[in-house]
Design a protein that fits this description.
Elements (H helix, E strand, L loop, with lengths): L1 H8 L5 E4 L4 H10 L7 E4 L6 H7 L3 E3 L13 H8 L4 E4 L5 H8 L2 E4 L4 H14 L3 H16 L1 H15 L1
Parallel strand pairs: 1-2, 3-4, 4-5
Helix pairs in contact: 1-6, 4-7, 7-8
C-alpha cells in the first residue's frame, strides 16, 4: 500500500524486496494491489551483498507486525540500512527504533497503516533525499552510536561494572 502511494506520487520509484519470504506470496499481493511487475524486483541476497543493495536505495521501508515481542527487538535490517547510509521508513512499536530515528532525524515513523500516514511518509522521504550526503552521514553515525559492536560491548561492560 505504501509503495502504491509513493509510485503514484513519483513514477520513478522502484520497489526492491530483499527477502527470504516466499516470492509467490509477494507476487500474489502485488497483483492484488495492481502493482505492475516492472515496478518491483525480489532478491534473496547473501549477507556480503547487503551493503551494496542498501547503499543503492534512497531509503528503506521496514515494516513489522505489531506483536508484544517486537517491543523488545532491535531489527537487524535497521542497523544494516543505517550503516550503509540509507534512511528508513519504519512502523512504530519496534524496539527503540522510533526514539532513535526521531532523535537523529534519519527517517519517518509510520504510526498507523493508513493512507494519511503513507502520505506523510512520502513527504518526509522527499526531504530525506535533499542534502543526501549529510543525511547519509547522519545515518552512518547513528549506526555507529547505537548498533556497532563497540557500542554494544561498551553497554554490556557498563552493566557488568555496575553489578560488581
Amino acid at each position: 500500500e505504501i509503495f502504491k502511494l509513493f509510485k503514484e506520487k513519483n513514477k520513478d520509484y522502484f520497489l526492491w524486496f530483499l527477502t527470504n519470504y516466499p516470492y509467490d506470496a509477494i507476487i500474489k499481493k502485488a497483483e492484488e494491489m495492481l502493482i505492475d511487475k516492472s515496478d518491483y524486483h525480489m532478491s534473496s541476497l547473501a549477507y556480503k551483498d547487503m551493503p551494496k543493495a542498501f547503499s543503492a536505495a534512497d531509503f528503506s521501508i521496514i515494516f513489522y507486525k505489531r506483536l508484544l515481542s517486537r517491543k523488545g527487538c532491535s531489527p537487524i535490517k535497521l542497523g544494516e540500512s543505517l550503516a550503509c547510509g540509507t534512511p528508513v521508513v519504519i512502523n512504530s512499536g519496534i524496539g527503540d527504533s522510533e526514539e532513535i530515528i526521531s532523535h537523529m532525524d534519519i527517517g519517518y515513523i509510520v504510526k498507523d497503516f493508513y493512507t494519511l500516514e503513507y502520505q506523510a511518509a512520502f513527504d518526509r522521504s522527499k526531504g530525506l533525499t535533499l542534502g543526501r550526503e549529510q543525511i547519509r552521514e547522519r545515518c552512518r553515525q547513528t549506526a555507529i552510536k547505537f548498533f556497532s559492536l563497540e557500542s554494544a560491548t561498551e553497554k554490556y561492560m557498563s552493566v557488568y561494572r555496575r553489578l560488581k
